[in-house]
Amino acid sequence: MGTLGTYEHNVEIDGKTITFEAGTLAQQAGGAVVTTLGDTKVLTTTTASKQPKDFLPFFPLTIEVEERMYANGRIPGSFFKREGRPSENAILVCRLTDRPLRPTFAEGLRNEVQVVNTVVQTVQFDPYDVVAMNGSSLSTMLSGLPFAGPIAAVRYAMLRDGSWIAFPSFEELEEEAVFNMVISGRVEDDGEVAILMIEAEATPDAWVKVEMGAPAPTEQVVGQAIEDVKPIIKQLCEAQQAFVDEVGARDAGEFPLFVDYTDEVFDAVWGFAADRVTSIYRDAELTKAERNDQLDVVRQESIAHVVADGPEDLDEDARGKQASEAFRSTEKKVVRQLIVDDGFRIDGRGPSDLRQLSAEVGVLPKTHGSALFQRGETQVLSVLALGTQRDGQRLDTLDPQDEKLFLHHYNMPPYSTGEAGRVGSPKRREIGHGALAERALIPVLPEQDTWPYAMRVVSDVLSSNGSTSMGSVCAASMALMDGGVPVHAQVAGIAMGLVYENGKYTTLTDIQGVEDFFGDMDFKVAGPENFITALQLDTKLAGIPANVLQDALLQARDARLQILEVMNDAIGEPRDEVAETAPRVEIVSIPQDKIGAVIGPRGAIIKELVEVTGAQIDVDEEDGRGVVKIYASSREQAQDALDRVNAIANPQLPEVGERYSATVVKTVDFGAFVNLTPGTDGLLHISELSKMAGKRLNHAEDAVEVGQQVLVEVKDVLDGGRKFKLEYVGERAGGNDDGDADGGDDEPRGGRDRGGDRERGDRGGDRERGGRGGDRERGGDRERGGDRERGGRERGERGGDRERGGRGGDRERGGDRDRGGDRDRGGDRERGGDRERGGDRERGGDRERGGREGGGDGGGERTRTRTRSRSRERD
To answer: Is 129 a known ligand-binding residue?
Structure first.
């Protein structure tokens, strides 16, 4: 800086104050400024190398963003407890800053320039990206570099009432905003504001807000907002200029500007190659590879011509280098003249024509969802992978978002352009393109509370000839539908181009690689039929009039609708369900007071559920209810876990007159505990067992053993469903050849008397689920081989719980005595369970309990017995 001391300048916009400070920090940097918005502070420095790198054919500008975790009072979560590689958000802010800054530097500058933004303070209230962008402009002006600034950046958001606000907070974006734009621009010599960059997207819940009456971000609405934001950009530019005038820019000396070629070299190349280049570009039948091959021949001949007969004041190396750059400019001039003067595009299309489109889904049938989208020679394969919410990405950044459940990753390998090159971690461009498509798709995704999956879509560019990022939007949208994700609508993307010559703007639809490379603008628009979900503008000009952008938006909509037709022909609605290979997620709501019963003492019950079913289970509390999320690898596994959770938390109580093929789960001197329904046990008194044996018994083991099935009838329901009076009806055989193990018309476990399990509501009715209902629907013991054939205690295919180390009948487990019984576990005392019931002795035997271990509020032995009995049923 040119002056010592501290300088400060404030500018107020929409009730928000932006402060610029300089003169104290980073005094050895070429330019340094601290920009403040609310409680967010960013230190920005701009420094240039002393010597130019004249051998480079481009301007070596580097933008860096350093997210210091101390800015939010946090210690990094990595093993080394220090910041490492930049976060994805930091990389996106780098790109956001680079795009308007780069075209504003003087052409021909070859000194290495580095702009570093260090976030030194934030309370996760205001986004720091626009703070860094304005600071980058101001610090560059203070550095004394040849820079046609200032440029200004504004975050501009449309609220659900249709109003727009500048610099919205994170809270305002989440709660009220429908559409969100970052717009950058500069003030031209005539006082008009020219737009340099736009990055915009609909908010994640925009679809829901629009359905609830909020205005949709249509082309007309967004186009008008671009015009309305210009006074704010002008105000910020004037504030920066006033600050520089007060502080004074550093005297950095002269910076040499290098020309790519002399006029003499260009004239030589143009005269030698222009006609041949024009002929090649006029041949609309050529493929990209064929055209490049022919141009390479002309390029080499042009270079040889200039090297042999070029300016004498240049050596051969300089002649060759300048001739190569001059040939590229010759190509550019030819392509632009064909478009502007003749209205001819190199593939024969008109300005608003699309290339040939094709769309296909299910190309990889064993994946969770897949789609192939092709537009001309651009081909993108997108593949969906579904996971549980546990598979979401955990974020450790300065943004308030700490988790992502939808990821879109974009890859563009070198073979997509017919080249050999580096393959590995994604470059900044790939990260940026992936994030753009991700933002385009998020607004149409289902809400998390109704769709409990994590989603990752990978878009691989297999062939590239322009507009690959928008091709990935189309392919990814179809892959989501193919995977059964209930998206609100299909999303398509289109890339628009612009050529400005002789005061005339020509807007191009669906630009290909050459038009992007030689054109002046890349304008990408994505969305469903009714509004825009993502928009991105990059320009090589010093600014584009807002009315030109408005016209481009309307032209883009026409193209987007045509693309949507092709995509909807391939798949118009999401699949009815996810692929067989996808994980299964079930969500069940349970009473708040049942959360403890599902979890159990020290997590014993939920651990047992996980062990028995193989599913992963999460229990949370939301809005005064318990929410259980079950993650499983198959539909059967998920249903088994769901049934077991329902048995604990939403039990279906037996009713008088119902008959059950009950499984003996425990024997005591005064009777046997039998499992009636999942989670509900009852006591069959020894007097009933005596009927079964035909003589008076002293011990239940003399009549039944654990795992045996007996036919019982509920004679009475007592104590509000906590106790049941059971009567022995007959022994449940292990099944016969006819599978009629119930003795003809008797229907245990509900039968006709209960109206079947159809009345079991949300549990889906065991009959409808197929495989867990009444014994008839389950194939009875026919399919299970009967408990007697299973050996009861040995448990068939599972190798017997004897081998699993104590999960067989109680006898194999050592009974409750080996487990410490209810007395030794002491678990129910902690739950307030057996304190009320006592042990088996203290509660006066299970007569006092009414024999129903699973019906009370405690979650101890009752719940354990419940889950064990379901395990037997499943086997």
So the answer is: no
